[in-house]
Specification:
- The complex is a heterodimer.
- Chain A is α/β, with parallel strands linked by helices.
- Chain A has 3 domains: about 210 residues, Rossmann fold (3-Layer(aba) Sandwich), CATH 3.40.50.1100; about 100 residues, Rossmann fold (3-Layer(aba) Sandwich); about 110 residues, Rhodanese-like domain (Oxidized Rhodanese, domain 1), CATH 3.40.250.
- Chain A is built from 16 helices and 15 strands.
- In chain A, strands 1-2-10-7-8-9 form a 6-stranded mixed β-sheet, with helices on both faces. A 5-stranded parallel β-sheet of chain A has the order 11-15-14-12-13. Chain A has a 4-stranded parallel β-sheet with strand order 5-4-3-6, with helices on one face.
- The longest helix of chain A has 26 residues.
- The radius of gyration of chain A is 30 Å and the shape is elongated.
- Chain A starts with 14 loop residues before the first strand and ends in an 8-residue tail after the last helix.
- By secondary structure, chain B is of the alpha/beta class.
- Chain B folds into 3 domains: about 170 residues, Lyase, Ornithine Decarboxylase, Chain A, domain 1 (Beta Barrel); about 250 residues, Alanine racemase (TIM Barrel); about 40 residues, no CATH class.
- The N and C termini of chain B lie far apart (about 70 Å).
- Classes of the chains: A alpha/beta, B alpha/beta.
- At the A-B interface, helix 4, strand 5, helix 5, helix 13 and helix 16 of A face strand 7, helix 9, helix 10, strand 12 and helix 12 of B.
- Chain B: Its cofactor is pyridoxal 5'-phosphate.
- Chain B: This is Diaminopimelate decarboxylase.
- Chain B: It comes from Streptomyces albospinus.
């Protein structure tokens, strides 16, 4: 397939059937709409392109900046689209909780502004919430912005009434599915797709999935937050159900490991919520058909897979550290017993000063380069703890003839490493008792080069 | 989605979180009735032993990260003498924001090395601070100059200063931090440091700090990183500062049950959108409004359910990584750079430290059928509503018991005793175990931080609440007037 522009590759994503052996539903065919295969990686490519393109010519003429309130995929797509047209892009957000997405946006050249947290000392008379200030700024004279306004812009929904919705109907041989399930973020995709499907068949049942109130799933709003969305209309959904982040990750794992669909947690949430919702219906269908001679027609359901797994490794690690279990490490301080640490060689500031003059031990400062550069013991070398940890994993980093004095802030970490080096066979390694703080408090000299 | 509209509102409780000491006091209903009978309504009760316990928890968070430094109690949270005197008997320090607070702290037993003067200062406050040798948290370049002049003109000893900075830049991302009237922009540090050097005989730089009005850990982490960079700039000029002052704002977890808070805020959202009957006085939205079916505005409420608050919040902040220093935890950076940590908790240090009691005067129905309960107090005597803290009061029957049991909870609005439409103690319907009867008491728990005496007035010659200190000894509660409490006070007058 040949295109003149990457934006032509947006849309026409595959509809893939999920193996019934995975989801276990007996009477319902389950299809995943793979929005993660859009060129910039998510369902938001459609909305971003549809919202931006109408104003692009004008924005290029005025050198406008593209701005959006987005924490993730919309910002990502808009950053690319703006860059392709020689425009700058700014994302304003209070929900940027995925560090990988933040870094990716910076890499793409986006400018990011974060809204402040809630005030600790509430001032009820201050009605200038940060969003109001943002909107005021957009309308200030002398500035030129292309504000795509995804939560209120009908072109967001339109991207799905003209694209996603009709594609699903076409791929199901001109029929609407019996169920359509979507996570609710801006409500653009669910509203748009639901409209098209209902035009084909008013009986289609639409399930909206939201996150639990105190929970966080990227790209999904909670039951209260959806009411802040201009495109959200409660009547779009026959039912609203909530999914937890644990369930989203569970769904994500099933899609990735068993279906070969490398979806992010939002797709995982959609899959999990879909199967959970349909299981009751499936049981009902089984019960009603058991007595009948012939099985009734099979039902079908479609859910949306919004984006890809790669950006959510940190998110997943935080919630499911068990999935990232690493093999045990050699020469690790964590293996030391308290007795070993207590038995490690230690020396106080007064004796250490004498020892340095007499035997010239290698003085290793385990603090960060920044702290070392600020103030350190004269003649010491700096190997930051995390680097030192790597070094000793491979073996002793200095000869056994060389006495060593280890230095850290308060003498705890240095004692652990002294014990480890002793265990590894070093005959004369000592830890500075009380660390560099005790050294300073004893009035011993610290230098700054 | 079909919205179910219940005929009568289900009880939307917001029960206060009570630790053992405060819970025990509230179980002593007979004593509380006697106190209000004798001393009048409203009455403030403070628990000095609790502030010592809270200071110990903050100190433990320092210990976890091996950090040295000081915990300064932000005095402005409560005017009590008992709390300040009790704190003077611990290893904590105090942050004073006025001449009166400084005098109070000195008189309570705090020596100048344990006092920091912050906030806007008048000449008398500055003079007493310089004369006694307390540390001064300097708000601006102009204030630094004035201090130096004062020390020179009056031949005062060299004064220790902490520079308060603001408007920090972070890596990668611009933070739209709320603009503050206080502190010098971090970008103007060099200008300030030149003045510190010029006035080297008058001022000694002990550190830099910030105080951000935000609940966001990330914003504070960024400011802390900025302070570490600023201190390095000081060191590179040959100055030897040794403290980072990270201010307060550690928060309080007010509610016993997170689910109640979530249910309440969801119900409020639904009420504002007209999807359920109102649960507030005349449909008050606490900052939310209905704009053609879409929810607009922002919830102007204190996040009353905060599982991570106080010393735990400090611990989390210190554990955060510093992106511009290779992701090392902030505590590690402080420690390895040999910096002491200064904190100024106010609200968090008086968590569970007090109670406002008020007598029920009457209960009647409004024209619209709502229950309205009038109390012998003014709204400003317990500033919960003013500070956006939604928390139910505890109802104490005349015989001292708390729950009669069996009865249906009743939703009521609480009004004060001023002849003023706005004198409502709550603009939300509060659910109580029974309809309060005249003579019964309502206890507004956990109000010692800003919600007790911060903005109480003498409007209409109404009485200003008296304050008593209460403590437990030998299995029972004892009390005395707040101003008569000292850490050595014992029942019977012996020490």
């Amino acid at each position: 397939m040949r295109y003149d522009s990457i934006t032509e590759a947006i849309g026409n994503t595959p509809l893939v059937r999920i193996d019934p052996a995975v989801h276990g539903l007996r009477h319902i065919d389950l299809y995943a709409k793979l929005e993660l295969l859009n060129p910039f990686g998510s369902v938001k490519d459609r909305a971003a392109w549809n919202m931006a393109r109408a104003g692009l010519a004008d924005a290029v003429a005025h050198g406008s900046q593209v701005v959006e309130l987005s924490s993730g995929n919309t910002a990502k797509a808009l950053a690319v689209i703006a860059g392709m047209h020689g425009l700058s892009f700014k994302s304003v957000t209070n929900r940027m909780r995925i560090p990988e997405i933040k870094d990716l946006l910076l890499l793409l050249g986006a400018e990011i502004e974060e809204l402040p947290g809630q005030s600790e000392c509430l001032d009820p008379t201050n009605t200038d919430d940060p969003l109001t200030l943002f909107h005021r700024e957009l309308s200030e004279p002398g500035h030129s912005y292309l504000h795509t306004d995804q939560y209120f812009n009908d072109r967001n929904t339109e991207a799905h009434t003209t694209g996603t919705g009709p594609e699903i109907v076409k791929d199901l041989d001109g029929r609407a599915p019996d169920w359509f399930i979507a996570c609710v973020g801006t409500a653009g995709s669910s509203t748009g797709v639901a409209r098209v499907l209902r035009e084909h068949d008013p009986h289609v049942r639409v399930v909206g999935l939201v996150a639990g109130k105190a929970d966080f799933i990227p790209g999904i709003r909670t039951l209260d937050e959806v009411h802040e969305v201009g495109l959200f209309a409660p009547e779009t959904y026959d039912t609203m159900e909530s999914v937890s982040s644990d369930e989203a990750i569970e769904g994500m794992l099933t899609l990735a490991r068993r279906c070969g669909i490398l979806a992010g947690p939002t797709g995982g949430a959609a899959y999990y919520g879909t199967v959970r919702h349909l299981r009751a219906w499936d049981d009902e269908l089984t019960a009603s058909q058991d007595g009948a001679a012939a099985n009734g027609p099979r039902k079908s359901a479609v859910f949306i897979v919004c984006d890809r797994i790669e950006s959510y490794l940190g998110y997943t690690r935080q919630r499911r550290p068990d999935l990232f279990r690493l093999p045990p490490r050699r020469n690790a301080v964590a293996d030391l017993t308290t007795a070993e640490i207590a038995a490690a060689g230690a020396i106080d500031t007064h004796d250490a000063q004498k020892w340095i003059v007499q035997d010239r031990p290698l003085v290793v400062d385990l603090r960060s380069p920044f702290a070392y550069a600020a103030l350190h013991i004269e003649g010491s070398i700096n190997i930051v703890d995390e680097l030192f940890e790597e070094l000793v994993r491979g073996g002793l980093p200095f000869g056994k003839q060389q006495p060593v004095l280890l230095v850290c802030p308060v003498g705890e970490q240095s004692a652990r490493y002294a014990a480890l080096l002793s265990r590894m066979g070093h005959p004369d390694v000592r830890s500075l008792s009380g660390g560099v703080i005790a050294w300073r408090d004893a009035g011993a000299p610290l230098v700054r080069d | 989605m079909a919205a179910a509209v219940p005929l009568s509102p289900e009880p939307l409780s917001l029960e206060p979180r009570l630790e053992e000491r405060l819970a025990s006091l509230l179980r002593s209903g007979a004593l509380l009735h006697t106190l209000v009978d004798a001393l009048g309504s409203p009455l403030n009760v403070v628990l000095p032993d609790q502030i010592a316990e809270n200071a110990r928890r903050f100190r433990a968070a320092y210990g976890t990260h091996r950090l040295a430094g000081r915990v300064f109690f932000a005095h402005k949270a409560n005017r009590s003498s008992a709390l300040v005197r009790r704190l003077a008997a611990t290893d904590a320090a105090i942050d004073v924001a006025s001449l009166g607070e400084l005098q109070h702290a000195l008189g309570a037993g705090f020596t100048p090395d344990r006092i920091m003067a912050t906030g806007p200062k008048n000449p008398e406050f500055r003079w007493l601070a310089a004369r006694t040798g307390v540390t001064v948290n300097v708000d601006s370049y102009g204030e630094l100059e004035e201090l130096a002049t004062l020390v020179g003109d009056r031949q005062l000893p060299r004064i220790r200063v902490v520079l308060r900075l603001s408007a920090f830049d972070g890596p990668g991302v611009r933070m739209r931090t709320r603009p503050s009237r206080f502190g010098s922009p971090a970008g103007e540090l060099e200008h300030l440091l030149k003045a510190v050097e010029r006035h080297g005989d008058a001022v000694e730089l002990v550190g830099v700090g910030y105080h951000l009005d935000t609940t966001s850990l990330e914003e504070k982490a960024r400011a802390l990183e900025g302070c570490i960079r600023a201190l390095d700039a000081c060191r590179s000029r040959g100055l030897r500062p040794r403290a980072v002052d990270i201010g307060g704002g550690f928060g309080v977890d007010y509610l016993a049950h997170g689910e109640q808070w979530e249910r309440y805020t969801s119900a409020l959202t639904a009420a504002v959108l007209g999807r359920r009957p109102a649960i507030t006085w005349r449909g008050h939205g606490y900052g939310l409004r209905n704009d053609a079916g879409t929810l607009r505005g922002s919830l102007a409420l204190y996040p009353a359910h905060r599982p991570v608050a106080g010393a735990r919040y400090l611990d989390e902040l210190l554990s955060l990584p510093a992106p511009s220093f290779g992701g090392r935890p902030l505590a590690t950076l402080l420690l390895e750079n040999l910096y002491d940590l200064y904190t100024e908790p106010g609200r968090a240090l008086v968590d569970q430290c007090g109670l406002v009691l008020a007598r029920v005067l009457e209960a009647r129905r409004t024209d619209s059928g709502d229950h309205l309960v009038r109390l012998a107090m003014k709204a400003d005597d317990a500033g919960l509503e003013e500070h956006g803290v939604l928390m139910d009061p505890v109802l104490l029957a005349r015989d001292g018991t708390r729950a009669a049991g069996g009865g249906e909870p009743v939703g009521v609005y609480l009004a004060g005793s001023l002849c003023l439409e706005a004198d409502l103690i709550t603009r939300r319907m509060v659910f109580l175990p029974w309809l309060p009867r005249p003579g019964e008491l309502l206890g507004f728990a956990n109000t010692a931080g800003y919600c007790m005496d911060f903005q109480t007035s003498g409007a209409q010659h109404q009485p200003v609440a008296r304050k008593v200190a209460a403590w437990q000894a030998e299995g029972s509660w004892h009390w005395c007037l707040d101003e008569q409490y000292w850490p050595i006070t014992r029942p019977g007058g012996e020490s």
